[in-house]
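Support request, please re-run this one:
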Amino acid sequence: MTIIRTKRNMVRVFEPQPQHDMFVETLTCPNDGSNVYRTLFVQPITHWQEALDWAVEIADQMKSPVIIAAIGGESFLRRHEQRVQRALRGMNDQQRGEMRQVVIAACASVMRDCDDRQLRAECFDILVKLRVVNG
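Re-run finished. Output below.
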């Protein structure tokens, strides 16, 4: 963890792991002794620098430290499962079809380019469930 000190606050930075992390989450720390963190934003990992720059810029206006954390897909789903389920339920047919195409493209990309055997196997299973390939 890296700590970036601002004039009156700080940003705690948990660096991404290149082959693992898919999202960057911007949170605020609890300052009341509880373990309740407030998620401000979740963005694709490609927005890492943008999220970090924003956190440093806004930190002095916050009551508590800001956290920038890179997270993997599984961690994201565990922590935001209800939010994801609500978003999926709210999609219309066109949005679901577009989401399906994004998932298929992402899985195909992993199958083609990733060296991680387990991750390729997971993507293959997803493609089988989506009936894109026969298992």
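DSSP finds five helices and five strands in the chain. Strands lie at 2-5, 10-14, 21-28, 38-44, 66-72.
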